[in-house]
């Protein structure tokens, strides 16, 4: 049945997202800030890169860090050259002065680069050969500064001073995201530095990028970009936004190109090999979707009643107006919500457990399972699901709005299925598996296995009966265990379960990694009373990275009593699959 909105609370899921949310509230109307806000996904992927996670943990191999610092000279040279070219194109004295100041800062950093490198034990007498990822970005930047812009005029066709001014804007647009991303990552890493104290080896470097002076430099760059964008057309702003996003992607490529020689916990897919299987499970309602499927099916039932009235025919057992059907659904929903809240109260122990108590939790969940089955029986007996056309279900599913990034996650995961040696499963209370199938398209059933209830049909019209295969938390965890048991007969496995509600609790806890989407109050209340801890995913990864000692370290395991909270599918994507 439909879960109440009151079961959701403001999210405290991720440090990364909290910092980004703060950034998103600032500078409304600013083109630079708008470009940054639209690059949130790229910023998350940068945070979850192996290099940054290892750096945040304080356990990054020193030679890897030295290589990173050494490569910085190529960025500085390209920036100084691009600033010079942009300054020549700018026609505003204030803009020229701002670019000149930024160029001087880049030249100063270039001048002292050798001494900074020597501080980190880098041999500056050796030639520093740029890696392919740096070359890709620097060539991209200098091509733009030369007027080679896709969608704009090419070199040799800069006809007016105004055309030159656009080149300055495009160039600064391709440089700004690097500064803003570095400032963002500096602040993100600074949060974890606070827990490490003076024993953190990269403290000085992080303090530089999290400093007020570096933030001021990033803000100065954004102000310059805003100034250069004022006179541009909508199409020209679109070009800058594309360049901004491309620069962000190239920055992520640079982070991912760093030679990581140590075991690392991200992306999760790398923690298994041909000797074992990766099994990813997900709930459907409000984990994948924005609306609960019972509410969606209720709307289809109301539409069905409306069609019956208009056509003069009736697929239902007795003629009912759409308003009668709507009132009936509202009554069921209200009853469900009230009884659900009482049921949750009955699950709570009188005293909070001092340690994780899974046995007690499972026993208490028998009450919740009974409640869910009773609620389904009332709906079936009412006949409200009778007469729904399969084609209406499929059309609705095809248009159903999913959580941002959900479909992209599964699309990429399925494409990588062969390489990953992985299986993907949806476990859902949804009354109608056909609705779920239509949401995820017409790919092979073997790509994404749907485990849910099914409508009974006569022809293509529902009879009102449900094949009741998965109605309760106990049904879910039984299916979860069965799937893993089948996988385990052939190979070892690692599992991830993604869910959002109290009904997902048992599966979340038994998976090697349980990830909670959103912020269900009932899930937290029941979990915490039984000794379950809820940890934001990103800080949790950093803690796990500190625990990794060797390649075969098993830092993730089920029934640890710890669940990880994520604020978006982008975070889950970055953790499980990487960029």
From TrEMBL:
Q: Which InterPro entries match?
A: HAD-like_sf, HAD_sf, Haem_Oase-like_multi-hlx, Thiaminase-2/PQQC, Thiamine_Salvage_TenA
- UniProt domain Thiaminase-2/PQQC: residue ranges: 50-147, 170-257
Which GO BP annotation is one of this protein's?
thiamine metabolic process
CDD domains for the chain: TenA_C_AtTH2-like
UniProt superkingdom: Eukaryota
Q: Which Pfam families match?
A: TENA_THI-4
UniProt-listed PANTHER family: BIFUNCTIONAL TH2 PROTEIN (PTHR43198), SI:CH1073-67J19.1-RELATED (PTHR43198:SF2)
Protein name as it appears in the record: Thiaminase-2/PQQC domain-containing protein
Q: Which organism is it from?
A: Musa acuminata subsp. malaccensis (Wild banana)
